[in-house]
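lol ok so funny story. i was supposed to be doing the assay writeup but got distracted and ended up predicting the structure for this chain instead. priorities right. anyway since i did it might as well share w the group, maybe its usefull for someone
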Amino acid sequence: ISDLQATYFVIESFDELFRMTEQRGFEPIYESLSPGFQYAKTAALDTDHIYHRGTQEYELRGGRGSAARPS
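and the output, tada:
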């Protein structure tokens, strides 16, 4: 998964994901963001539950294309 997606999140079930997104109002969030706003792919937000924090070393060295090996 390192080459396909450098960061990812884990869900308990799709039912949980659907329930959480259905109950959440996204409009105020979208309206508060500047056009073109993006978080860095390595950003960790205050609301994130981090189970393991990697170094991103493999990704930063170029991943598969660089012949780097995951540490």
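The mean pLDDT is 80. The helical segments are 14-23, 27-32, 57-60.
back to the writeup now i swear
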